[in-house]
């Protein structure tokens, strides 16, 4: 049955924060432009809605009949990356967002402070898993007297946001500080401008955002059987949280068909510095055949040589399996400190040599096939 409403009444449903339409099994409508007398966006009826503008000025709302699947921000087909959102907002004309919440997500013995920050974009800055937002911190750079420049942060939520409305974004940010040996304390003059601004933010504070940017870290969703090997240090975990939520936490088209292995490697200093571990453990319980996680705790674990356990050492423990999965079409992702890369490539080079293969040729092959995804700093 169609429910008809006036343009004014329907538009109210499209505003960020508006209550979901309560007719049938429907999700809130987001991001639909109602200024054209034509279909603007369609939803497939699996828990979403379809909305159309008629020449008469009335708007038809068609209740979905599915199982509440989260699908109102999908491409058609869902794996098509042709029209992925890119650079919707730029440095000269950023989007002004507001902070919803800032939460410390590490324990008391963690080396440094890391925060999970949720902000509202009102459905106007859609993004995909694996992309980044730019944040322009307020203030002037004392070195050149010019306004502070943009800093990029990998997005830590799926395209639907932690609240599943499609109007919020989450970032995982570590507060950058500098320990001064003379002061025997953090030197406030040398702290990271943007990371401290974000970690100190309060609900309602305004943020200037650019983006979304990046296509390097996208998931190859056309293949439901692909293995995803995700390697991170610290806050490099952010894009993988967006992957894992899409695959296992939310009811998405790709998550419903995914049959591969998502394998997460995370390197941090100690157990208190682990990020989102409670979420990973829940996924492990529900999907033990499709999800795997390995930690490298540099201050608590030893590698095979008796030294500190870094992320490259943990991956090395599974060198043959990682190499084999890559040779069978897996995609490998790296996000975090670039210092992890030499150890990992050396390890894979060793496996390659044992197999009688030329490592440079093998790496070139993986890159040409789009299996090698690197976003390090």
From TrEMBL:
It comes from Chrysochromulina tobinii. This is ferredoxin--NADP(+) reductase. NADP(+) binds at residues 154, 174, 235, 298-299, 308, 336-337, 375. It comes from the Eukaryota. Keywords: FAD, Flavoprotein, NADP, Oxidoreductase. PANTHER family: PTHR43314. Belongs to the ferredoxin--NADP reductase type 1 family. Signal peptide: none annotated.
């Amino acid at each position: 049955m169609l429910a008809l409403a006036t343009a004014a009444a329907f538009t109210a449903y499209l505003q960020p924060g508006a209550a979901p339409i309560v007719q049938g099994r429907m999700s809130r409508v987001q991001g639909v432009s109602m200024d054209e007398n034509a279909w603007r966006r369609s939803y497939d009826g699996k828990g979403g809605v379809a909305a159309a503008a008629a020449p008469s000025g009335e708007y038809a709302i068609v209740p979905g009949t599915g199982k509440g699947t989260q699908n109102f921000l999908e491409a058609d087909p869902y794996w098509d990356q042709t029209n992925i959102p890119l650079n919707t907002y730029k440095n000269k004309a950023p989007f002004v967002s507001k902070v919803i919440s800032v939460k410390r997500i590490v324990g008391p013995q963690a080396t440094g402070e890391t925060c999970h920050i949720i902000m509202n974009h009102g459905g106007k800055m859609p993004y995909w898993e694996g992309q980044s937002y730019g944040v322009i911190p307020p203030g002037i750079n004392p070195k050149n007297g010019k306004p502070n420049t943009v800093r990029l942060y990998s997005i830590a939520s799926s395209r639907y946001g932690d609240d599943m409305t499609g109007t919020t974004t989450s970032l995982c940010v570590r507060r950058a500080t500098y320990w001064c040996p003379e002061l025997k304390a953090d030197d406030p003059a040398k702290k990271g401008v943007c990371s401290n601004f974000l970690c100190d933010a309060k609900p309602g504070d305004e943020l200037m955002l650019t983006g979304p940017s990046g296509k390097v870290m996208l998931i190859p969703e056309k293949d439901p059987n692909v293995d995803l090997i995700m390697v991170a240090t610290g806050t490099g975990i952010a894009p993988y949280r967006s992957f894992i939520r899409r695959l296992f936490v939310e009811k998405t088209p790709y998550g419903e068909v995914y049959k591969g292995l998502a394998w997460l490697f995370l390197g941090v200093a100690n157990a208190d510095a682990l990020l989102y571990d409670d979420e990973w453990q829940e996924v492990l319980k529900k999907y033990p055949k499709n999800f795997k996680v390995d930690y490298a705790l540099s201050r608590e674990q030893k590698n095979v040589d008796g030294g500190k356990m870094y992320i490259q050492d943990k991956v090395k423990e599974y060198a043959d399996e990682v190499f084999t999965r890559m040779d069978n079409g897996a995609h490998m992702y790296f996000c975090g400190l670039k210092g992890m890369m030499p150890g990992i490539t050396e390890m894979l080079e060793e496996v390659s040599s044992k197999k009688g293969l030329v490592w440079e040729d093998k790496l070139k092959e993986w890159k040409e096939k789009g299996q090698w995804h690197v976003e390090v700093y």
